Structures are given as C-alpha cells and as structure tokens.
Amino acid sequence: MISINTYIKGLVASITLVAAVSCSDPWEDRSNTNDNNLKQTLSERIKNTSETSEFGKLLAETGFDNELSNSKTYTVWAPTNEAMGQVDPVLLNDLASKRLFVQNHIALTAFSSVSKKDTVTVQMLSNKYLEFKNGTVMAEANVVTADQYAANGLFHIINKALEPKSNIWQYLKGKTGSNAMSSYLLTLNEFNLYRSDSIAKANEFHEIYADSLTNSYLTNVYNLNNEKNKYTFFLLQDDAYNSEVQKLEPYLTKSNTDSTTTYASYFTARDFAFHKAVARENLPDTLTSRFGVKVPINKANIVEEVQLSNGIVYIMSSLDVPLETRLLTTKIEGEVPTGFSRNDKRANTFYREKEDLDGVLLYDIMVQNHGVPLFAINYSANNLYSTTYKVYWRAINDIQTNTFQQSLRFGGTVMPDGTVSDPIAELPYTDVPPNTYDEIFIGEFTLNESGRLDLISLIAANTGVNGNNTLSLDYLKLVPVIK
Amino acid sequence: MLKILQLTSLLCILLFGGIDTGLYAQSLSKSTTVGSQTKEGIQIKGIIKNAVTGKGISGINITVKDFSASISAEDGTFTINVPHLNSLLIVSGQDYQTKVFPLKNKNTGLEITLFEASYSQFYQTANLPENSKLQYNNPNAAQVVDFEKDQWSNPVNQSIGNFLQGRIAGLNSVGKSGVPGAGAYLTLRGFNSLYATNKPLIILDGMIYDDEDYGSGIIQFNGTSPLSMLDVKDIEDVTVLKDGSSLYGTKGANGVIIITTTRPVDLSTKIDFTMYGGINQDPQELPVMKSGAYRTYLSQLLASRGDTQQQIANRPWMLDNTDSGSYYQYHNETDWQDKVFKASENQSYYLKIRGGDDIAKYGISVGYLNSEGVVGNTSLQRYNTRLNAALRLTEKLSVDANLSFIYNTENQLDQGQAYKTSPMHLALTKSPFVAINAINATGEVSPNLADVDIFNVSNPVAIINNSIGINKNYRFYGNLNFQYDINKSLKANLLVGLTLNKERENFFIPDFGVADIILPTAIAKNRSGSEVQQYFSIYTHGYLTYNKSIDYKHNFNVKVGLRTQSNESESDLGLGFNSATDDFTTVSAGSNLLRQVGGALGEWNWVNSYLSAEYNYANKYYLTMNTSYDGSSRFGEDINFAALGSLSAAWLISSEGFMKNTSAIDLLKLRTSIGLSGNDDIGNYTAQQLYVSQNLLGIQGLVRGNIGNPKLKWETVRKFNLGADLALFNERFNASVDVYENKTTDMITYETINTTSGFDYIVSNSGSMKTSGVELGLNSRIVNTSDIKFDLGVNLAQYKNEVLGIPNSRILTQFGGATYITDEGQEANLFFGYQANGVYSTTAQANAAGLSRRLENGSLMPFAGGDVIFEDLNGDNVIDENDRKVIGNPNPDFTGSISTSFSYKRLSISGLFNFSVGNDLYNGVRQNQEKMSGYENQSRAIENRWVAEGQQTSIPKATWGDPLGNASFSSRWIENGSYLRLKTLVVSYDIDVDSNYIKYMKLYASGNNLFTLTDYLGFDPEFSATSSIFGQGADIGLMPQFMTVQIGLRLGL
C-alpha cells in the first residue's frame, strides 16, 4: 500500500511548478525595456550625463525638467559644462532670461543628426529658428556628441551655448533715440502711410499677426519681427540717412513739410530691407528691393554687421541710391481697370489673351461696338511722385482695319452729372493704327503732390460710330522725369 | 438528375438481384451452423480475477458466441466448453469492462483479469460502417472515445469538437475561437485537399450530419458550426475511422467520425440530472501603450509624415493647457481592453432519462445552457431535446428512432479584421487618452458615450451597448431505422431520415460612436443586415447484413447497401444603410438607394452503393474488403460513377499458440489497409456551364460565369495504413501505433488559362499531393490499488505533407494579411514573405547595405537607419516581391495530449493536457499592434522602437504610412505557435448516499484552459479563422479561448 502522502506532496509540488511556469508571460520579455536610455526621460538623461550636468541643473532651476519629462517628443541641444561656463552672465541674471536661455536649446519633435536635408531649420521653444547643418553644426555651436536618446526624445551635446538673440525688429527698437532711421521706423507704429494700414491696425486682435499689423513699415515692407523668415536690413547712420531722405523730398511733396519728410523717409527706408539673410561674403554689388529698386551695395561702407535671430543688420556709413534707380516707372495694365464710365457694356468688353508679333503672350482689354461717344475706361495709380511724367501706351488694334483714336485724362473729380471737373491733365486724341505693337509716346503731365491718382481715364472718340469709338489698351507707362 | 435516378434504380436491381442468390446459399449453410451448436467441444477451466484486487470475481458471464455460456463461481473459477482452442471467450459482468479472451491453445490455468468499465481501448466497441465490433477485432485504424467517463464534467462552453481535442491521435481539433458555440476546425491525419473540404465526414446515429455553414456570415468573422449544437452529455461514444473509409465512397476521403447518442442500455429506469454554474475568466490583456507613451509615439509619427513642429504642437492632444478647450477630452487614461473584455458566467441544466421494457426502450434528454463570451455581451443560449427509442414491433421487425431538436440564440459581435466595428480590435488600437463618455471643455463628464474620436476611430463601448448581432438557429435531425430479421444470419435494414436547419442572422451597427464606411456611391452611417439560411436534406440507407460462421473458425460477415442523399441549401441576405436614426434597426428602414440583396442556392444529390465482406479465420486472421460505387450530381457530364474500394487485414499474433507462454503480452495485433476514397466537395455547379447576371450602365444581362468542366470529378485519395496494437503486463500498458500515407490524385486546382478566354481560371482535377505520418496512442495504469488508481495516457501524431503536382506555377494565396505558397516538392500552405534580420542601427549602415524599395510612383527609396533589414534574395538591391521566401509552416511538427487521471477512494482528479509543437503562426494582431504607421495604439514593445542613430534595437522606427514596408508580411510576424495547455482539470467526488431514491450524487469542479504555456504573443495560440487550409495559422484577432471554472452536481435517480 502506497501512502497517499507521497502523492500529495508530489502533486502539490507539480501544481506549484505548473503555476509558476504558467505565470511567466512571453510579453514580459518583449515589452520590457532593456535599454537604460529608454527608461529615462530627457531631463534625467541630461542631468545624469556628466558632460551636461550644468545644463541639467539649469533645467531643474527653470522648471523645464518637468516639461522634458512629459510625453511629447523633444530635441535638446545641451551645451557642455565648459560651454555653460562661458555664457554671458547677463543672459542668466533673472528667471525670465534663464527660461528664455533654456527654451533656446529645446525644440519640439525629434531632430536626428542624419537628415535628407543639409540644413534643417528648427523652431526652438523660444520661438527662435536655428539652423541645424549636416547634423554637426547647430547655429554657431558644433555638435560634440550627437543622437543621445531617451524615452521622450533626443539630445545632442554641443560645445557652445545657444544664446538667444533678439530679432531685427527688437534690435531696431533698441536703437530708438540713437539712430534716426530706427526712430522713424518706430513712429510708423502710429502713422498710417496708406489707408489700408489703418484697417490693418484696427484688425489687430490679441496677438495674432500683431507684429505685422501694428507698424506700417512691417505691414508694407517686411515683417522684421517674424522669426520664421530671415531678412537682411541696412541700417543707415544718421548722416547717410538724412541725405537720402533729402534727396527724395522733392519728389514726395505733400501738403505739408512734415508729411513730405515722413513719406520721403518711408520711400528711403523701404528699399533697405531684403528677404533672406545674405552673409557679408555673399553680398552682391546690387540688391533689388521688393519694390524693384536696385540698391548698389558698397561693402566698404559697412560699419558693423549684427547677426540676429531672423537675419543680419548691416550698419552703413553711406548707402547712396541714385534717383535714376530709386524713382520707379509706374505701369498700369489695361486689363485691370478700376471701372468704366458706364456699367452696361460688359458684353462689348473683351479681356483678351493674345500673342504679339514675337509670339510673346500679352493680356489686354478691348471695348468695341459699344455705340457710346466718349466711353471711358478708368484706372488708378499709387505711389506717384511729385514730378513730371512722360506717358506711353501700347494699344493694339488688330481686329479692325481702320485706325481709331483714344485719349487720356489724369485726375479730376467726377461730378453728379457724370462729367469730370478739374482734371490735372488731358492729353490729346492719339491714333491707334491697325497692327501696331509698339509702345507709343502720348505726352506729359506734371503732378504737384505725390501720392495716389484715383482717376486715370482712357476715353474713346466722341462718336457713336462703331469701329471708330473702339478702346484698346495693353498697358500705360508713366515714367517720372528727374528734376 | 433524371439520369442519376435511372442509374440508381439500375444499380439497385443489380445489387439486390445479385444478392438474392447469395442469400439463398447462405441460408443453406445456416442450418449446418445450428446443428454444430449441439457439439460438446473441449472443456476448459479458468479463473476470473479483479485486476485491482487480484481476487476472484463471481457471477461473471463467460460465453462462446453461438456455442456455450457459463457463469463464474464464488471464487471466480469457471468451466466452459469451447469448439476449439482458438475460440474467443466473451467475458462480461456488471461494473466490469466486457472483454474477449483468446484461448491461445490453452485449456487449463486460464487467468482472466477484468478492469472496470471502459478501461481498455481495445475492448471498446467501434461503430464502423460495416458493423459494430470490438476494437480487438478491428483490422482498420480506428479509435473510440467513450464519453461516459468525462462527459459529465465537460465545461459548458466546450462543444464536441473541442471535447475530442487530444483524445484521438491524429484528429487535429483546433478551437475556432472563444465565441460561444464557435466549434472546432477538425482535420484527421493532416489534409488531403487544397480547395475541397478537409473535414472528416460526420455520421450521427447512422446518418450524415452536415456541418457546413451555408451563410456568408454577415456578423463579420463569425460563423456557425452545426456540430457544436450537439450536447456532449447526449453522446454515448465516438468512433473515429482513419482509414478504410471507402464504404462512404466519395465522401470518405478525410476519414469518418461516427457519433452515437444516448442509448437505452437496460430495462431499469435511470435518470440523470445535472446542473452546472461557472465563471469565464476574461483574457489577460495584451500590453498596450499608456497615454504618455502613445502621445510620444504620435508626435514622432506625425513628424515622419512631414507635419511641421507648429502643426504638431497645435494638435488638441498636444496642448497641456487646461483652458485650451479640448484638454479634458484628450487627457484621459482609458484601459479599453478592460471595457471590452469582461468576466462572465455560464450555466446549464440537463436531464436524461433512460429505460423501458422488452418492447420499447427509450432515452430522452432535455437541456438548457447559457454560455457567455468574454467580449461585451456575447452569449449563446441553447435548448435541446432528444428522443432515442428502440421499439420491437414484431418478433422480427424492430425500429430505432433518433429524433432531436436544437434551438440556439447567439448574441455576437463583429470580430477579426472588422477594423471599424470589432470591439476587440478597437480595444487594442483605440487611443488611450480619449474617454468612453463625452467630456466638455471644462472637464465635466457626460453620461452619454463619446462619438467617433478625432482619429476617426469608433468607440467600442458604443458598439457593445448599442449594436445588435443576433443569430437564431435551429436544427431538426431525425431518422427511423427499421430492421427486419429475415433469419438469424440475415438482416435487412432501412434508415430514412431528414435534416432541417434554419438560421436567421440580424445585425445593426449604429451611426453614433462608429466610424462611417464608404460604399461605392455613398457614405454609410448606420448599417443593418438580415440573412436567412436554410438547409434541407433527405437521407436513406437500405442495407442487408449477413453473418455466418463455419465450424466456429471461418467467420463471414457481409453487408450490402445503398445510400442516397438529396440536399437543398438556400441563403438570402439583405444589407441596409443609412436609416433615419439609430432607432430604426431593420434593413427595410435603410435608404432605398443603398439597399443590397443577395443570396445563394445549392442543390446536390448523392447516391452510394456498397458491398462489404469480412472474413476471419480462427479469430486470428482478419480480412475485410469494401467496395463502393458512387454517383453525384456534382460530377461532370462525361464522368460516370466512382468505383472505390479498400482492403484491410489484421493478424492477431498474440492469439497464436506460440504466444501462449509469453504472459506479459496480452495483445499484439498487426494491421494493414489500403484503399481508395473520394472527396466530392468539388462545388455543386462547378462542372456545369453557368451564366451570371451582369449590370452594364443600368442594363441587365447575362454573361458566362465560368468555363464548365464536363470532366470534373471527385478527388481520389489512396490511403495506406500499417499499424500495431499492443497490450502488456496484464493490460496495464496499452498502445497503438500507426504509420500512414494518403496520396491524393485528381486533386481540384484552379488552373490559370489564357486571358483571351475571358476567364482567369478553370477548375480541373490536375493536382496531386501526399500526406504521410505516424500516430501513437498509449494508455497505462501506473498505480492500481483498490483505493488509489493513477492512469497516464499519451497521444502523439505527426504528419508531413508534400505537393506532388499542380498545374501552372506555384499557388500564392492571401488570408488575413498573410501570404501562403503552395508549390511542387514542398509542403502545401507555407508562409511566404520577406526575411527580416533586425533593424539598421545607423543610416550609414543602411547606406552601406545599399538596399531600397520601389514606391508606387516608381521611384526608389533607400532604406535608412531604423528601417528593417530585409534579406535581398536575388541580389538586385531592391526589396520587392521577388525577395520573398518560405518563412514558416503553419502545420505542427507533432500534436498530442497527455491525460492523467488519479483517483483516491471516492475522489478523482483528472487532467488533460494537449500540445502542439513546431507550428508557426502569423500574428496579425501583433502586426496591427506594431506596424507603427498610423493612429492606432500600439503594443508596449514599440516603446523600444528605433529613435536615434546608433541605437541598437529590434523594433524599427515609426513612419507614417510605412513607405518602406517595414511592417509588410515578413518573418517579423511569424511566431512559434507551440503550446502546452491544461485543457481540462476535473475534480470529482462521489458522495456516499444511502437513499432509496437517489442512486448516486457526484460533485464536479472543473477548469477549462487553466493555463497555456506558450511563447506566442497573441491572446491565444489556438484559433482557426477559416474552413480552408489557406488561412490556418493566421491570427486575425478572434475572441480568444478563455479560462472557465465551473462546479456542478450530478444526481442519479
């Protein structure tokens, strides 16, 4: 007889074994992280890396260790302890500056040292955009050790701290009082150069688009407060600036001298900001402003070069832009009228897409067979100078065999009866012969005050005979004459 | 059809006409037999002993068939006259297993030991198509499972297919899923066909039990299994016939499972009442990322899509400011699996009454069960009744009636790859930071559920609470079997039966909380569906049996018969979309423009005539010959009847005289068989030329639907089997070993044809395949005392398949994201994909390797750091489909089970372990969980993903849309599916009752799937999503089989 006890012991033992074995879960091995790096958050990793412990301390001090422990993905460019020692103490003298300093080292999402692009522009938490080149250079710092990883992102160890820089606009603001050009630009916070500027400022809401809307210069030229783009800005020393303004004043005569100076200043300054940061060594002889003005650059006149977060400011002892290039020809496209003398001739109005004799595409307007004497197409022009203009047109008469005539009238006020009183100039009727594609000189007129002309009319012959009262215009060219 | 009828009648005339003469001859010899019974014979002496105590037993019947009978004395001794010393004694007694005992030329000193009922596998009765016989005498490879032992403790949610798992060597039963009533995918000895069925034929109470699902399964990835309707407690025994199944002609190629239900045994009335209650344990959750890790993952993933830092920073879930208006919606920690999986209950009540008198005996059962699933509110309610009766109408005429009616109501949910509506899939992949309920900007939680989230992912709780998925089905299955005893040797039987199966499926998926689906012409908000399936079959079976023994040495057994079966199936379905509100849940409430209707019809007929002749000499040499002659409506026009047959032989070495002194060997039998069987699952109408309707710009017309093949015929399987049965040491050790080879010829294949024909393929009999294997069944009693008994059993089975020939080149098939290859010279159905060898640690390493992948736009994209290192097989430096190879085999190296049973006085404990070794699985669930290409939440393992140059890891980086195919079907997703499972553990206690009313009272505590030992990373390594072999081993995310613990009471009145 075999004792039951032997069996029970064996049974208990085997059941225990089975239970123990069954508790081991194949997922345990798989989902457990063996990689110590992945067990730590970025802030822990940076703190525990001896090379970057100083920066780690700063993270803790500014509270960013919490941010870097959360579940977003970050990339940190952590300066070595040595680099931290070389940081300008001014940048770390209060908590706000320290936070900004730290934010300038952290970016959302992961940026590996290997990328398909040579240069990756990275938006830091400071809202500054820094360039990460070839995975080895971050802004002005070199990467010492790349691609350290943690549970929530990467960090690269760099040999120089990424000190947060101000942007061009902040820099210009700082120059207010010491530099006439900067002071002038700041006055444009209040002054509306154009009607649209006041609308923009009225629409400024919270802080969205606030930078570009609150200053007439930023609205009309470039938003130098925008961190996302890079700009090159030429800041003139007072003498140079004043001489440029004076040079322009005769052409921007307004009703009073203050206004004249303001507009002359604007027309001076607007051509000194350029898109993209152009390094000194890459500066060409001539830069073209967004308004089409060719600005000759003489590197010898650069007094100082200031690298800023969204570009470069060159402080110039002189930047002389000749009037020949400064004063711009105004071209009015025929196919973009502002209105007509009457609005019932849409069926006779043709917006045409044609080729000239050289096969070059052109767009023009032709109003034909409308049966109305003195039918007129109205145009307007902005930014006109207070000077004499030579007027040219190109008008194409290609589907009629006869010559017709049309004339131009500048300025004036539309009276309630439809007539126009007090025009600035009325040029005589000029022939439009068939199949002529040349630009033709029409005449001259003189403006005493610079600014906007709301009414420029192309007027048909005073006849109801169709074929003779045709209007055609490719473009008008108003060429300013230097006094 | 008419042709078949004519042929059938002709066949009948031929067969029965031919037999008539035989009958006459046989009845002549019958008289000599009767005469010989008066002979004295030789007197022999012996003793009957109890195998446990070794003491003699009194009152045991000892008989020699048709010759003499005797009863053992007080001390167990007996004397009996036998015709010769090769006679077989039949020894039977109450509470003991009836057995046979060969004399082996001995006439004195016979010692016969008896074990308790249903002990030895060799003295079980096999219900074979020819007749019923003891396994001892059986020349075929068959195995019998006696249900009495384990049926009463069977877990409520385990159907017969699952119950058979591990109990028969070579019967591979794979539980389809954990859905209540899902049943099991059954194959016997591997597989013999690629496109036709591999299911064994199921014979229930003498009639074919159809186990097909005729619907399309509108509740996605659910199905029905009629076999699982049977209550395990209704079943008396199951005989699995692995070879020699040619009596079933073109239906026997995959072997036969013969099920016998409740039989009245004796005249006393026996009442069994059982009640069970149990708990279903919810599955262990797969580890998925929590909110924090998920957000980190998302922020990296979106960066890989090209989103700017600003875009990423502005996502509502990235804003950590509580005033942002969406903070509270996206800062939760929801364990979705916890909301979807739940522990549940099951219960069942069952009453069985057996009894009767000389004239009429009956067995009646009624049962109710309620089995709940572990996902949402899935459940199965079943009502079943069964009446089996045996009536003696006259002296010579008797009738057996088997009638059953079963009614199921199933609540189901979409599962598997229903990515928008499967609560299980959603639970694994839905973002953990969104909440179940709607939350407003100030963080107040509404009692209303949250709608589809920001990622357009459905809310699984909304689906569980508000969707409808009901499958109601019933089956009537009944037959009458008339038997007329013409004389003692000759009997005529006629069985007539019918099957009626009806199934009604309804579903409704609400709009609220569920992602929309895109139809060709509309966006579908809510959707509904309804389907009715019907199957009707009439079955007849007429046969004559003739037994004859000459001089008690030459024993003949002849059976001749004719079976017919006519079947009709129909399924009709309608799908509705965009009803006005989620309160209108029927198809008719859907938009008239979008409604879809469809269905299928089937009609097929089968006739089978057969002749079986058995002969044995001196109970030592056995020979069986079977032939059959089949006709089917499925065969092509040019094809006539299928003539098939088999021959089997056995030699009982242990009964030979020279073995009489080797007392250690109780039984040694060699068996062999060779035969041809057929598989007629070739499609009801495949052989015929069909037209299908076609809509062209609103004009309806008919176009040719296929190329009919008038030469299409059954698949032929040549079965060869060699086996041995062995019982040693007083039957303490019993073993059966079989080796086999099944060779399929005329295998159905889809042959690609010239595109100028307008069709892609033609179905033809042009393939061949071979499956061979070994099986071992072993049972032993290790400890055998009157108080303690310990039994150990082992089943092992192994098979190896080889495709011998297929037309055209290799066959590539897809299922659930896996690609399978079937090609000549290798096993069928192998996983075919890329070989992944880790992850590039750095971009420099990837550049050095120089591999790239061609994108859809034709350009080449190089692999970089963090991408998977795929093997470039053809060396062209481009990873494409030419670089795929065999990366796994879903077929196991071997399968089997270990059964143990321990009893101590009235307490008994039994456990059944089953295992599968060496099968590979495609873990499609993990593929979804680790593909890292979209908003789906992922497994915790991806927290180890590649994030930085130089990082050493096996998990690649997260990339939106996965352009480089890091998650494509590759060895990354192939896992070893080997497992060992404690399938059932039963503790039972037989309470000592002293009552006139209660005969016995037994308490059961049983556990199902108590533990599973596996390296597989899915919920469960055992699943089967399809009935085709192309798809086995692909885990598409069905409800896992779960652990159940139940207690029950069985009362005998």
Protein topology:
The complex is a heterodimer of chains A (483) and B (1053).
Chain A: H1 4-23, H2 26-31, H3 36-39, H4 42-48, H5 53-62, H6 64-67, E1 74-79, H7 81-85, H8 95-103, E2 106-108, E3 119-123, E4 129-133, E5 137-138, E6 141-150, E7 153-158, H9 168-174, H10 180-187, H11 195-202, H12 210-214, H13 216-220, E8 231-236, H14 238-248, H15 257-269, E9 273-275, E10 286-288, E11 294-296, E12 302-308, E13 311-316, H16 323-326, E14 330-333, E15 339-340, E16 349-355, E17 361-367, E18 376-384, E19 388-394, E20 404-410, E21 413-414, E22 420-421, E23 425-426, E24 430-432, E25 440-446, E26 451-460, E27 471-473, E28 475-480
Parallel strand pairs in A: 1-7, 8-13
Antiparallel strand pairs in A: 1-2, 3-4, 4-5, 5-6, 6-7, 8-9, 10-11, 12-13, 14-28, 15-18, 16-17, 17-27, 18-26, 19-25, 19-28, 20-23, 20-24, 20-26, 21-22
Helix pairs in contact in A: 4-5, 5-8, 14-15
Chain B: H1 2-36, E1 42-50, E2 61-64, E3 68-71, E4 77-82, E5 88-92, E6 99-102, E7 110-114, E8 125-127, E9 132-134, E10 142-146, H2 160-164, E11 171-175, E12 184-188, E13 201-204, E14 207-208, E15 235-241, E16 256-261, E17 270-281, H3 291-305, H4 309-313, H5 336-340, E18 344-356, E19 360-372, E20 379-392, E21 397-411, H6 423-429, E22 437-439, E23 445-449, H7 460-466, E24 468-485, E25 490-509, E26 517-518, E27 523-524, E28 527-550, E29 554-577, E30 596-617, E31 621-632, E32 642-652, E33 665-679, E34 691-696, E35 699-704, E36 715-728, E37 733-752, E38 761-784, E39 788-805, E40 811-815, E41 818-822, E42 830-833, E43 836-839, H8 843-849, E44 852-854, E45 860-862, E46 868-870, E47 878-879, E48 885-888, E49 894-904, E50 907-917, E51 920-923, H9 924-930, E52 974-976, E53 979-991, E54 1000-1014, E55 1034-1035, E56 1043-1052
Parallel strand pairs in B: 1-7, 13-16, 44-47, 51-55
Antiparallel strand pairs in B: 1-4, 2-3, 2-5, 5-6, 8-9, 10-15, 11-12, 13-14, 15-16, 17-18, 17-56, 18-19, 19-20, 20-21, 21-24, 22-23, 24-25, 25-28, 26-27, 28-29, 29-30, 30-31, 31-32, 32-33, 33-36, 34-35, 36-37, 37-38, 38-39, 39-49, 40-41, 41-42, 42-48, 43-46, 44-45, 49-50, 50-53, 51-52, 53-54, 54-56
InterPro entries (chain A): Adhesion/Biosynth-related (IPR050904), FAS1_dom_sf (IPR036378), FAS1_domain (IPR000782)
Organism (chain A): Mariniflexile soesokkakense
Protein name (chain A): Fasciclin domain-containing protein
